Amino acid sequence: MAELKTQKTDASVSKFLASLSDKQKKEDSFTILEMLKKASKSEPKMWGGAIIGLKDRKIKYESGRELDWFTIGFSPRKQNIALYLPGGYEAVADVIENLGKYKTGKGCLYINKLSDVDTKVLQKTFNESVKRAKENCGC
After folding, report:
1. Which end of the chain has fewer CB within 10 Å, C or N?
2. Residue from 89, 9, 23, 87 nearest 51 by CA
3. 36 near 72, Cβ under 8 Å?
4. What is the CATH number of domain 13-137?
5. Rounded Cα gap, residues 23 and 31, in angstroms
6. Phi, psi at 46, each rounded to 5°
């Protein structure tokens, strides 16, 4: 079976975020990082070159395949900030109703900047995502 391309690394999360050239994206990313740390009660790790993941877990598919991954995370991309939620955005659809301006795709939420969303609702989204993941997988 093929190895997953995106692996956890020892790279510095702080150095990665500090290297972002877009000042607003950098500030928003440091804020999101603190919000995710609060929700997950864990420290961040780099996954690949541009994904920050928190709270390691093992995912087991119906096929029996197991995968080491993170519970919750994000990636500050050039066009937006991708938020990786366990179970995808669908798992917290009831929470994100009043989030503000965002897009969805393949289980992720995409925001352009924090000022586009209600940060209290975003924190609740992160908290509920981690809580529901724990209930569903015991991680």
Report:
1. N
2. 9
3. yes
4. 3.90.1150.200
5. 13
6. -80, 140
Position 137 confidence tier, pLDDT thresholds 50, 70, 90: low
pLDDT tens across 94-125, in order? Answer: 999 999 999 998 889 999 999 999 999 999 99
| DSSP structure string for the chain | -PPPS--B----HHHHHHT-S-HHHHHHHHHHHHHHHHHHTS-EEEETTTEEEEEEEEEE-TTS-EEEEEEEEEEE-SS-EEEE-TTTGGGGTTTGGGSBS-EEETTEEEES-GGGB-HHHHHHHHHHHHHHHHHHH--
pLDDT digits (tens, 9 = 90+) for 67-89: 888 999 999 999 999 999 998 88
Domain boundaries defined on the chain: 13-137
